[in-house]
Amino acid sequence: MELSDFTPKTLGKEAIKPLCKKGKRNPQNVLLIVNPLDYWEHIFPATTFLNAQGVYVYNVLPIPGKVIQSAAVPVGSMVAGIASDYFMGLGGAQKIESY
């Protein structure tokens, strides 16, 4: 997925609308997964603001989600998904026994 900007209109149409499954679900906990180079060049500046107290806040999005950096995503691309739709597991050589 490629976005021209991070405005609410663009994020809603390009990132969130496809996750609605033609209006059959309301996406919450959306993950936007991007390459670290894209994060620092494009997303960080677009989502960082100086608040009224004079403190910078970052990763401010107009959607119910968060940005995750991953080198597995090609530069210039973004993956959008809902966290509960995915499972992450790790394998190892140790055996786990239950009693």
UniProtKB/TrEMBL annotation:
This is Phage major capsid protein. It comes from the Bacteria. The lineage of its organism: Bacteria, Bacillati, Bacillota, Bacilli, Bacillales.
